[in-house]
Amino acid sequence: MVDGGNLFFSKSQLHASEQERLLRKARVLVDGYNAMGVDAVALGPLDFAAGFTALGELQRQAQFPLLCANIVHRDSGVPVFQPTAVVRRGVLRVGLIGVVDSALGARGLGPGGEDYRVEPLFSTISHYADELAGQCDLVVVLSAVPMKKFRLLAKKLPTVDFYVAGDPQDKLRIPWTIGDAMIASTTQLGRYLGSAHIVVDGGGKWVTHQFVPMKPECRDAPAVKRLVDGYYRDAAVSRLQTPGGPAPDDEERVNLVYGGAVYVGAAECGRCHGDAYLAWQRLPHARAWQDLPEANRNRLECLECHVTGLGRWGGYGHPGAAEEGPNLVGVQCEVCHGPGSLHPAVELASASRAQVVKRCRTCHTPARSPKFRLQEYLSRIACTQGEHAAATLPAGAGSVSKQ
Ligand code: HEC
Ligand code: HEC
Ligand code: HEC
Ligand code: HEC
């Protein structure tokens, strides 16, 4: 498992006010990659934005090498980072080389870069590829150089079998085949994984490639999810503490739903709203998942309206999520009020009646709920009943239509 570079930052200069937050994010990325067992990551031009000292700290934290063969000490010519790595998979030995674009120059290396220089791309790869070809079955170059440079390299360097591009473009591209080599990249924001299947035998090497979309139903690794949730929660809280601070970046915009709050489950709400919880438990919303015929309990087209926060950040992401996270089956409090991990410190997305009623129709569609009348249905929701009516609701209230 490898990464072609530009992992840590998304721009080449960091404003002093965002340095700390973005470094925290870089450390979370390293922890996540450690947990995933990533084999190697190439450095891209943007990874130098926080300077060499910060990169050195990230490398110490990482259980995988940050590869870069062509940044060397100005005087001695010795590489600053590990230039190559050899990974064993079964009987195969895969040689990995990381390089940065030589157009980068010492200035592009950011704070602390004056002591180093960038060696030419072609001669560096050629040197290390020859060295690795002798001891490996396969030679792979990881780099964030522009695509057109990859094409030139692939034409000239027969010893390299595969190029992984850390190209900052956010477009899914069909991999190129040039000669016997293949060049593949993915998109930003981790929306796709690229998966290369490589067959090596005495007669040659065959490479095929496919993209694996990271759909909501792909199971989150609990350890990684905890890291990411924690990061967004901290980021949301610190943003609240510094109004007028930096706006969220693209990645945060994708993930920040309601200020970064995640779903905690009705039982957690019940700690403070015990009466509302008891009343809700007796109503059909609480049973909405159990009432699905067993064969339909994992079907996305049903779960959409019968669980809480399907596919949302920190919501019910996939069948079986309940095993590790909060139990999010059924139509729970947070379906109507919004995810509650930051509440009561931060206002819920839908605290008032006017905000909540907009949500009813997303599930109570004419097709699914032909008898829906807003006022009548609202009057049957427990938390609209004054003191939540916990004491007065008869058991089974709300399922009148079935009796
Ligand atoms: C730690 C205790 C606590 C927990 C847990 C808690 N709440 Fe609250 N909640 C409060 C308090 C205190 C208020 C009153 C806040 C106020 O008036 O400013 C409140 C108010 C509310 C309100 C009224 C609107 C508002 O924001 O004032 C709603 C709706 C609500 N909570 C829903 C929830 C939901 C849903 C959950 C679970 C995700 C939850 N609460 C979990 C303490 C809690
Ligand atoms: C667009 C949202 C939506 C989707 C998608 C959806 N449902 Fe429902 N479902 C509802 C609503 C709303 C109700 C309650 C209707 C009412 O009583 O007015 C409901 C009620 C039900 C009930 C009735 C519970 C009972 O015993 O009265 C069953 C069973 C059910 N759905 C099964 C399914 C199955 C199976 C699927 C997938 C094939 C599915 N639903 C998909 C919204 C949805
Ligand atoms: C189907 C949607 C829905 C669900 C599910 C839901 N609520 Fe509500 N809730 C509402 C609506 C609508 C209101 C506004 C009531 C009003 O203003 O008359 C409300 C109001 C509230 C209030 C503030 C009103 C008050 O009496 O203090 C609290 C607190 C609350 N809900 C907590 C919860 C908790 C806790 C749960 C889960 C155990 C929950 N709600 C589940 C729709 C929902
Ligand atoms: C996430 C989807 C979803 C949302 C949002 C939602 N509901 Fe429901 N609702 C359901 C489902 C599913 C059922 C059927 C549960 C069952 O019977 O198993 C249901 C059942 C009900 C029932 C019981 C109907 C009956 O036949 O007994 C009432 C009342 C109700 N909803 C009111 C509301 C109101 C009012 C709102 C908005 C404040 C709302 N719901 C929002 C999915 C939703």
Task: Please outline what is shown here.
The chain is an alpha/beta fold and 403 residues long. Helices cover 30% and strands 16% of the residues. The chain has two domains: 2-29 and 36-213, Metallo-dependent phosphatases (Purple Acid Phosphatase, chain A, domain 2, 4-Layer Sandwich); 262-402, no CATH class.
Provide key terms for this protein:
three-stranded parallel sheet; alpha/beta; 403 residues; binds heme C
**Proportion of helical residues:** 25-40%
Give the low-confidence spans: 318-323, 388-403
Mean pLDDT: 82
Could you give a short account of the major beta sheet?
A: 6 strands, mixed
Count of extended strands = 13
How many domain modules?
A: 2
Taking the alpha carbons of the first and last residues, their distance comes to 57 Å
The H-level CATH homologous superfamily of the largest domain, spelled out, is Metallo-dependent phosphatases
Portion of residues in beta strands equals 15-25%
CATH architectural arrangement of the largest domain: 4-Layer Sandwich
- Element order, helices and strands? EHEHEEEEEHEHEEEEEHHHHHHHH
Indicate the CATH class of the largest domain.
Alpha Beta
